[in-house]
Fold:
Amino acid sequence: ISLVIGTVFAFLFSEKPLKPLLEIMKATDRIAEGDFTARIHLKGPYELKQLSDSFNHMAEELASVELLRTDFVNNFSH
Structure:
């Protein structure tokens, strides 16, 4: 009985701390696929909010670089 109860508690309490990491992983996968509109909004300690802001800033910069690259290729090809 204690094994079942322990397993249930472990499952319930292990999912919550991993939720921010799962959100970051999904967003990084979207960025890697070229979707620079991916943003994250983490709640919790200051460090998670700072990570969220840094990630979103990175995504904005990558979108800007991609736009510049596309414009350069279009202009150079004409």
